[in-house]
């Protein structure tokens, strides 16, 4: 089996996937400000900026910029943690909660449509393979260190 050839095909197909509007919609919701408000919502609110940074794998400076923007839009609030005054907790406003639900629903509709088009067998296989790739990530990360 020629893994280099398969890798080239994978890269080509990944690039092609990125060009489709449907995929961009899902991808856009799973990044940036939309991801931040969905993450806060699904975490039950009151999260530390460092938790968001870690989950998104981006710098605390970029998270601070996103939080500033979301705060200006009236979608989040920040308050000092009463149990540890050095920490700031981020929570959603009512508008932020509504927008999180809206973004999550949009992503779910788009992903559901994709799964339906794949059909049950291929959709399950797709999820199985993605799950396997995720399980392999620690080994891939170790290999990159070499």
UniProtKB/TrEMBL annotation:
Residues 3-135 form the HTH marR-type domain. Pfam families: MarR_2. Transmembrane segments: none annotated. Keywords: DNA-binding, Transcription, Transcription regulation. This is MarR family transcriptional regulator. GO terms for molecular function: DNA binding; DNA-binding transcription factor activity. It comes from the Bacteria. It comes from Aminipila luticellarii. The keyword Transmembrane helix does not apply. InterPro entries: HTH_MarR-typ (IPR000835), WH-like_DNA-bd_sf (IPR036388), WH_DNA-bd_sf (IPR036390).
């Amino acid at each position: 089996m020629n893994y280099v050839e398969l890798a080239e095909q994978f890269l080509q197909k990944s690039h092609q996937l990125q060009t489709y509007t449907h995929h961009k919609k899902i991808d856009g919701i799973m990044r940036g400000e939309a991801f931040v408000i969905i993450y806060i919502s699904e975490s039950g609110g009151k999260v530390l900026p460092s938790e968001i940074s870690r989950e998104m794998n981006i710098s605390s400076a970029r998270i601070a910029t996103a939080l500033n923007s979301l705060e200006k839009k009236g979608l989040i609030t920040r308050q000092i943690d009463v149990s540890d005054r050095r920490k700031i907790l981020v929570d959603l406003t009512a508008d932020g909660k509504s927008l999180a639900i809206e973004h999550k629903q949009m992503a779910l509709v788009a992903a559901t449509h994709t799964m339906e088009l794949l059909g049950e067998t291929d959709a399950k296989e797709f999820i199985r393979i993605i799950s396997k790739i995720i399980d392999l990530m620690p080994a891939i990360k170790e290999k990159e260190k070499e």
